[in-house]
Amino acid sequence: MTLLIVTAGFYLSPADPFFIHNAFPWTWLVPLLVALRYGLGPALLSAVIIAIAFAATHSYASVNQYLYRVYFLGGFILTLLCGEFSALWSARVRQSEQLYHYAEERLEMLSTTYFMTRVSHDRLEQNLISKPATMRGAMEDLRSLISRHKGQLDHESCSELLQILSQYCSLQSAAIFPVRHHKSREGLMAMLVHADVDTVDGEAIASVGVGFSFKKNDPMVELCVQDKQTKYYSVRDIDDDIHSEYLVTVPLHNEDGDLLAILCIKDLPFLALEVENLQVLTILVDYFSYNLWASKMGSRVLQAHPDCPPDFAGELEKLLLLKSRTNTNSALTALYLKSSPHRDDLIIQHKRQVRGLDFIWETSRGDTAIIISLMPFASSTSVEGFMLRVDKWLKDVYGYELNGPEVGFHFQMLVDENANQVIEHLLEYVHED
């Protein structure tokens, strides 16, 4: 582009191709635009090209030294300023995108939790005699499953998952097939960028009911892989001439949207093939996938602290990664409860004080009960406000002083370090107190 503009200058203004004596040095518009769009490096390269082109077309003795020095010095300084501006705002845009992505994930998880609560309430209210199962029981079974298998997606864990889904969603014949990721080298765009392509492996990880072989290029499977959403066979699909071997296909994916496997359901009871049951099925599979991801991501924390909830460990690792990438503030707080007649009530009441976005881990060291709260997007001011609220609540209800003989409180802002080190910094206060 720079060479093109320089060439155009010779064509439009042969006497002054670099527009030095013009009201505006149009040639320098190219490095400025390059700096704003691509950054400082390409912009400096564009400016150097202009300088080389000028040196190649002018002799040293025939030019006004002062005028041309000012011309190039001003151009380079303006290019540097635009490059610095571009770098600053690119960093801010990346930070905003990271925060938006994280907030979007949390909103999706909160929406899922709300739906699970609503469905569980509806089922309790209806008191179905034929299926006296609640979502709470299903979630407890899934958490126990992931804890036993340490977040591994293998034959044993998938077999137990299918058994749980069969119990709560009436699956009769279903299988889980793994998804492989590879780089596509086909097509024009793939010549420039090697795009990731998801391919479903035909060998099932686990199955339940009557076994069946995987059908490659099935339209329901292709739609599920493409959209990463639950797909099911409805009456309207008959008119669309869509023929599939499966009634329902459900994706198993992590928080980054990467497919791990696909659940293919070939047979369901007629009364189970309805929207609410399929929504419950999707929610349970998503809940399993999320906790599977959290257990893997927080494996270091879970190995050092087996009583830590997997979602707490996974979210802590994610927020530490977010801190290192975008310098986004988050905090850990710990409430230390010594032996007292009100300790159990204090634990229950304190859990009600935390924000909806926070994660709670209840643990103990010796005779001291510890409630650790992970507070995403919390600044030191937010934590201090939380501490003042807890202090007022303790004084009004129990007459206790925060950091007194009965209750202790410490907090730590997340920094770019190992998750276990952050936790140990809080736990070591137990011995100090």
Describe this protein's structure:
This protein has 433 residues and is an alpha+beta fold. The chain has 3 domains: 2-92, no CATH class; 129-297, Beta-Lactamase; 299-432, Alpha-Beta Plaits (2-Layer Sandwich). It is built from 15 helices and 10 strands. The chain has helices at residues 2-12, 29-38, 40-57, 65-126, 135-149, 155-169, 188-192, 219-227, 236-239, 275-297, 299-304, 310-326, 343-351, 380-397, 419-432, and strands spanning 173-183, 196-200, 206-208, 231-232, 248-253, 259-267, 331-337, 359-365, 368-375, 407-413. The strands form 2 sheets. Strands 1, 2, 3, 4, 5 and 6 form a 6-stranded antiparallel β-sheet that branches. A 4-stranded antiparallel β-sheet has the order 8-9-7-10, with helices on both faces. The chain is flat, with a radius of gyration of 31 Å. The termini are far apart. Residues 127-132 and 185-195 have low confidence and may be disordered.
Question: Could you outline the blueprint of secondary structure elements for this entry?
Answer:
Layout (H helix, E strand, L loop, with lengths): L1 H11 L16 H10 L1 H18 L7 H62 L8 H15 L5 H15 L3 E11 L4 H5 L3 E5 L5 E3 L10 H9 L3 E2 L3 H4 L8 E6 L5 E9 L7 H23 L1 H6 L5 H17 L4 E7 L5 H9 L7 E7 L2 E8 L4 H18 L9 E7 L5 H14 L1
Antiparallel strand pairs: 1-2, 1-3, 1-6, 4-5, 5-6, 7-9, 7-10, 8-9
The number of distinct structural domains comes to 3
Order of helices and strands: HHHHHHEHEEHEHEEHHHEHEEHEH
CATH class annotation of the largest domain: Alpha Beta
What would the principal axes of the Cα set say about the shape?
Answer: flat
- Biggest sheet layout: 6 strands, antiparallel
